[in-house]
Q: What sequence folds into this?
């Protein structure tokens, strides 16, 4: 019973932040930011960027613990280097972009970590599945903006990505590297 | 002073040749020649076959094998060049001058193509972002940055060079057969003999 009010407050805060964001609150600089997937096929690491993503990071260097981050990528915008591969990876067996057009990471708690670092804990939602992750994020300056760099590793099997014929050539582990400017 | 008859000059010069030149190709030279022939045949057929395949794990794998074959060719052509420059081949089989010239040009061109074709394949791999990891073990450095437009150009050059190899090898083999079956000389036989170095 006690949880209801906090849930309601949380939902309200979320709506407010969404409205604020939609109303033109500064979001991430998508022109300078990158979100890149690195997969490994027969030991060959291949980088594939998401062409389309959005999000925002509220970060005050004097109060790092109040930071909040939300990032959303368009799953259909993953660029593997050729149209053949791009259309394949959108299919049901892979990212299923028709049913799951976006994947997101929303922070639940951010703590100061080692010097110049934050420990961002949050929920990754991908292809209808969720996973709680803690990602070390390096914070830096990029002119007037801040930069946030980090990397996470996910399992294709956990999220049900890729049909099993590919398991011999494709590693289960996939790295996602982000470089966010806001 | 009377000049010696031409036939005497020729006899002396061929005697000098016989002393200066070995009678045969070395075993290593013969081995390298046929190794290259095998690798080029496999690499070329695989390349021609794989490009039209639909995307599949097999296609990805075949591309990797093709890259490994290409890098092996590049490696061995360098070994071969060093061997060729440090070991004298046997004297040319007697044939008309234009044929000698044509044979020589073909050989030079093949050496160039055996180097340039895999290098363009390597460049293309780099430009697509699918680096070459030789035998799944050694990651070769990318020669250019990932660039789709550049990749489209590089793959066309690579394919053009590969088809040039195809036709030149065909010419090279046809000439060898002509010498063997029509002229009945030693041209082909000396590349088949397995004698001591």
A:
């Amino acid at each position: 019973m006690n949880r209801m009010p906090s849930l309601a407050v949380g939902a309200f805060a979320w709506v407010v932040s969404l409205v604020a964001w939609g109303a033109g609150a500064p979001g991430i600089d998508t022109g300078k930011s990158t979100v890149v997937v690195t997969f490994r096929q027969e030991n060959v690491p291949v980088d594939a960027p998401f062409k389309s993503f959005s999000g925002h990071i509220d970060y005050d260097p004097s109060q790092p613990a109040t930071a909040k981050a939300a990032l959303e990528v368009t799953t259909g915008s993953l660029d593997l280097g050729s149209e053949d591969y791009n259309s394949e990876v959108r299919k049901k067996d892979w990212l299923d972009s028709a049913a799951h057009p976006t994947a997101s990471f929303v922070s639940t708690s951010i703590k100061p970590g080692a010097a110049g670092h934050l420990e961002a804990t949050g929920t990754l939602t991908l292809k209808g599945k969720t996973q709680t992750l803690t990602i070390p994020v390096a914070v830096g300056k990029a002119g007037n903006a801040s930069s946030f760099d980090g990397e996470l590793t996910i399992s294709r099997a956990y999220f049900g990505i890729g049909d099993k014929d590919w398991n011999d050539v494709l590693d289960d582990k996939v790295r996602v590297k982000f470089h966010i400017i806001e | 002073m009377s000049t010696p008859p031409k036939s005497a000059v020729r006899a002396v010069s061929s005697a000098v040749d016989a002393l200066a030149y070995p009678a045969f190709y070395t075993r290593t030279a013969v081995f390298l020649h046929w190794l290259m022939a095998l690798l080029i045949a496999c690499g070329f057929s695989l390349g021609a076959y794989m490009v039209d395949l639909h995307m599949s794990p097999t296609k990805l794998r075949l591309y990797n094998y093709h890259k490994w074959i290409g890098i092996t060719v590049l490696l061995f052509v360098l070994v071969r060049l060093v061997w060729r420059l440090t070991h004298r081949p046997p004297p040319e089989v007697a044939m008309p001058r234009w044929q000698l010239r044509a044979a020589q040009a073909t050989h030079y061109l093949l050496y160039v193509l055996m180097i340039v074709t895999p290098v363009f394949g390597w460049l293309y791999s780099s430009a697509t972002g699918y680096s070459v990891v030789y035998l799944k073990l050694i990651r070769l450095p990318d020669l250019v940055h990932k660039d789709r437009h550049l990749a489209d150009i590089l793959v066309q050059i690579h394919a053009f060079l590969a088809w040039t190899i195809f036709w030149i090898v065909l010419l090279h083999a046809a000439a060898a057969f002509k010498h063997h079956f029509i002229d009945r000389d030693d041209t082909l036989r000396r590349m088949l003999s397995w004698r001591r170095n």
